[in-house]
Each structure stands twice: as C-alpha cells, then as structure tokens.
C-alpha cells in the first residue's frame, strides 16, 4: 500500500491478511516478490464506468478473504445491517418478520446472500444480486433455493414493479459514482408502497482516519470533501473506488429519486460486541456513529 492521503476514508472491504481460500479450486495467483505492485491510494475523480469496473474486479479478487475474515460474524443466514451487529430480527426495518411471508424482496450487493437466506427462512421470496461473480459463488457454496443474479445495481435486469421490498446492507451505494441512478432503478422495480432500506458507512466517518484505535478519533480532513477515495495500479487505473456523500446529500438523493425518507437509524455500539472490523471498534463505536441506515418508501 502506498502512502495514504491526509484524509483516510472508511474502507468497507478492507483486505484481510488471511490467505486460506474457502472455495477449493485452481486459481490464478497474484504476483509476489519484486514484480508485485501495491496499489497507490489517492483522491481523485472516478466516474460511473470506472468505479463499476474497479469494484467488480476488487470484490472478485477479495471475496474469498472477505468471507474468511467476516463470515463468522455475518453467519450463513443472519441479516446484519453493519459492523455494530444491528440485526433485522430486532430492528424490523423491513417490517415485522411475520409480515415478510410471500413478499418479493430484492437484496442489492448481496455478497454471499446471508440476508437473502434469512429472508427466505421467513417465507419471503428473495432475489440476491451482486456485481461480483465470486461473491455469488460463495452464495452457491452456502446454498439456498432463491435466484442469484450477477448485475450492476445501476442497471437492474428486472421489470417495473417486480418487488415488494428491497434492501442493501453496505452493498452498492458506497461504491457507485451516481447513487441517484441506483435509487431510481430500485424505485422502478418496486411496487407502489414498496420499501427500500439500505445501510452505508456513516458520512461523518469520512472526516476521521480509518483506524480503530485512538488515532481514529481526531478529525483529519473536511467532511465536505466529496472527492472519491481511489486505489490505482501503476498505470493509474482504478482498482478500488469508494464514494463519499454527506448526510444531506443522501437525504437529497433519496427525495430526488422519488422516495420518502421515513426513518434514519444510527446504530449504537452494543456492549456485547467486542470485535473490530476495519476502522469499526468498541472504542470508536461508543463515541461516534459508524453506520447510517436509511428507511425509504415509494409512494
């Protein structure tokens, strides 16, 4: 990793040091030794196409390590909204579990489809969508009887009014250059009265270094600097991109895209959670919010 810029944002998909693969199959390995290249971290513009290409590749390369590192916390069939551990069983942001039976639900940025698997157990009819083919291979590994779809959230391959509900736990929205494109697509595939609930890194975190210890408690840059965080290769091509929106930006994106914001949840760090996840930790979680969950409805 090259030197980080003065403002280090939250990396939702921080790379693990664990190398053990979950899916046992021959794969091309990344180069090691002198020929290996650590991406350079920088701040620069990155458009829709570049962001999509970079993040598809990053998640395909890092899905194995992500599932090794975080699979135990996520479980195979839990619905967790973020590193704090807010569980849909208690939160009921999509509605009471008994009312999910028979509902058509789209999970966006599903990863290994843990949330979709929980929804199916409640009697819902989920569809799990992710940009990364490798993440969906992990969904196949764990199993489930619901459809898996590899597609971009900005171009959903579904007819208008296909779903009653949509959800996304740290999926798609942090990584796209045009969140309104995704929101409008979600609105299009929802039926009237449908609900979309999504969680992202709390915007305030972008003013702080992405560190779990005391060094992550001092403001290091402007909250209002919306320049994307980019990791790029030796030729300047993005290999990972994350986009910042302020809290006000998120609210405006929701309203302009035809949704009504009915709740904004900022989960508090629970005493039972002693784990660290990248820049999330009990220390930081007890002082500043780490996740924002937006509950939206289509009129």
Automatic annotation (TrEMBL):
One of its GO terms (molecular function) is S-adenosylmethionine-dependent methyltransferase activity. Residues 1-53 are annotated as: Disordered. It holds the Pfam family Methyltransf_11. It comes from the Bacteria. Residues 106-198 form the Methyltransferase type domain. This is Methyltransferase type 11 domain-containing protein. It comes from Streptomyces alanosinicus.
């Amino acid at each position: 990793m090259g030197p980080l810029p003065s403002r280090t944002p939250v990396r939702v998909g921080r790379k693990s040091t664990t190398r053990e693969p979950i899916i046992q199959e021959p794969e091309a390995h990344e180069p090691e030794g002198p020929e290996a290249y650590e991406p350079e971290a920088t701040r620069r513009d990155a458009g829709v196409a570049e962001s999509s290409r970079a993040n598809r590749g990053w998640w395909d390369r890092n899905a194995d390590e992500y599932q090794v590192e975080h699979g135990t916390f996520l479980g195979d069939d839990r619905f967790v909204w973020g590193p704090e551990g807010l569980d849909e069983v208690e939160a009921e942001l999509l509605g009471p579990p008994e009312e999910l039976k028979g509902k058509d639900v789209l999970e966006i940025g599903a990863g290994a489809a843990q949330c979709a698997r929980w929804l199916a157990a409640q009697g819902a009819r989920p569809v799990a969508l992710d940009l990364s083919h490798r993440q969906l291979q992990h969904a196949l590994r764990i199993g489930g009887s619901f459809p898996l779809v590899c597609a971009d959230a900005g171009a959903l391959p579904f007819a208008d009014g296909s779903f009653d509900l949509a959800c996304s736990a740290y999926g798609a929205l942090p990584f796209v250059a045009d969140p309104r494109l995704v929101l409008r697509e979600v609105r299009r595939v929802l039926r009237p009265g449908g609900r979309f609930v999504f969680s992202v890194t709390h915007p305030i975190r972008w003013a702080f270094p992405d560190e779990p210890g005391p060094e992550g408690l001092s403001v290091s840059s402007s909250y209002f600097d919306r320049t994307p965080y980019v990791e790029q290769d030796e030729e300047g091509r993005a290999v990972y991109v994350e986009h910042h929106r302020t809290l006000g930006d998120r609210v405006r994106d929701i309203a302009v895209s035809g949704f009504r914001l009915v709740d904004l949840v900022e989960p508090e760090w629970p005493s039972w959670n002693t784990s660290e996840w990248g820049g999330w930790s009990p220390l930081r979680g007890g002082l500043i919010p780490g996740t924002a969950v937006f509950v939206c409805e289509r009129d």
